[in-house]
Amino acid sequence: MLELEHFPKIDAHFHSTFYNPVYEKIAKDYHVKYININTDASVFPRMEVQENVALAYVKKAPEHFAYIASFEMQGWENPNWHRSVFDRLKKSVDQGAVGVKIWKNIGMEILKPSDSSFLMIDDPFFDPLFVYLSENKIPVLTHLGEPKNCWLPIQEMTSERNKVYYTKNPEFHAYLHPEIPAYKRQIEARDYLMDKYPDLTLIGAHLGSLEWSYEELAKRFDRYSNFYVDLSSRLGHLQMQSVNDYEGVRDFFIKYADRIMYGTDAYNNPEKLTSSLINDWKYFTTNKQCESIEVNGTFKGIHLPEEVLYQLYYTNAQSIYPGLNVEIHS
Ligand SMILES: [Zn+2]
């Protein structure tokens, strides 16, 4: 029988913005390497601070920590913005960053001064950035758009976690802000990047904001050979689908086993991290009854084949982020 503590794992979506030694302990206890993700969000510290924290973890225990860099959109109207971002990213990659994160402030927050429309990721403004990332073979992790629920009233949302999040963060609840571009537009803008830059490795964080339908994800995997996703914070949506379509969800994980990466999205929260590691493992490796805050009632684990688990938890992250130097020890 496979054991959680001994099975090698990469948590491809993790956030820690101040140094906490408990993560190294959890990494050793559970045999994990984390990819710590810098993010251009106002609730996170300044980018330089985030990057220094991420580097401190890598320096302390390179076998357990790696990181994904990012850049600030602040000052984007400045003519030197692209140049300074390229310089910054080059330095980050030289220091060991395995990819670059792009956040939902693009598409949902930042306005163009010319006409006060939202700056979308498919705007020609970003062409030089994607040419740079593509030519330099730097994988890009995109959190673009939000769960489809974000565009619905709270009572119509399918996930308890989404209900709680958007009640607490009304500024991100698109339903309350009809000026925010529609869900469909967010997805189209992201898909456009994969059409336009077929050599770019593009990872959709949070199931690429297509969490509500594994069939929609499958369509993108079929269409774009450069598209990957992480499961972070959205596994509940697939668990929900598996309540009524158990074989469909299970077959999806098996058919696209090389496209999906495990990730927790634990954010300065060691308790969430360990409970996710334990509960997610039960869902993937057994056919026992599972529970989640996101799903009403219990649901059955999908008991994936060992080779699929190995891809999901371990080898995919290594091939998707080639800079990841994996030498983890239990
Ligand atoms: Zn995250």
From TrEMBL:
The keyword Lyase applies. GO terms for molecular function: carboxy-lyase activity; hydrolase activity. Pfam families: Amidohydro_2. The keyword Lyase applies. Keywords: Hydrolase, Lyase. GO terms for biological process: secondary metabolic process. Residues 78-322 form the Amidohydrolase-related domain. GO terms for cellular component: cytoplasm. InterPro entries: ACMSD, Amidohydro-rel, Metal_Hydrolase. This is Putative TIM-barrel fold metal-dependent hydrolase. The lineage of its organism: Bacteria, Pseudomonadati, Bacteroidota, Sphingobacteriia, Sphingobacteriales.
